[in-house]
Design brief:
By secondary structure, this protein is α+β, with helices and mostly antiparallel strands. It contains four helices and seven strands.
């Protein structure tokens, strides 16, 4: 069996292309990782709020307990699509998903500062999500937009 040089070159170009598109650019990567840490929860359940918030080290802007945090129950590829053809532009860098997602919303029940933050039982719902995107990568979940 003979392998043509052009086939090998094509294969190499495809491999490089896929590997460069699989990861966000270095200047976006920290924001994307923070987004995943705070909002990616494919295995999340309503009973997991306090443990998930503690394990992930999620706090408010002032380092105190975060009042509300939403976890998206989907794989990261389905979430990322919202920043492309799976979402509708909403102005600025915001995109609203074309399809609803199951989410778990955790609300602070008691406590002011970690590790005393208690979230109790989360609320499971189906809603359209609004994401802030950078170069096709989600970097922000817009908690203020309730899209049922």
């Amino acid at each position: 069996m003979e392998i043509h040089q052009s086939a090998v070159i094509l294969l190499l170009v495809l491999c490089v292309s896929f590997s460069t598109h699989a990861q966000p650019p270095d200047y976006i990567k920290p924001r994307y990782q923070k987004f995943l840490n705070q909002h990616f929860g494919p295995d999340m359940s309503e009973q997991d709020c306090t443990n998930a918030m503690r394990k992930k080290g999620i706090t408010g802007a002032d380092g105190g307990c975060k009042d509300v945090n939403t976890f998206i129950k989907a794989n990261s590829n389905h979430i990322k699509v919202v920043c492309g053809n799976g979402g509708k532009p909403q102005g600025g860098n915001l995109f609203k998903s074309n399809q609803p997602f199951t989410v778990i919303t955790c609300s602070l029940r008691s406590g002011l500062r970690p590790p005393r933050c208690e979230y109790g039982r989360g609320k499971k719902s189906l809603r359209y999500i609004v994401l802030g995107c950078e170069k096709g990568w989600p970097v922000h979940y817009d908690e203020g937009k309730l899209n049922l």
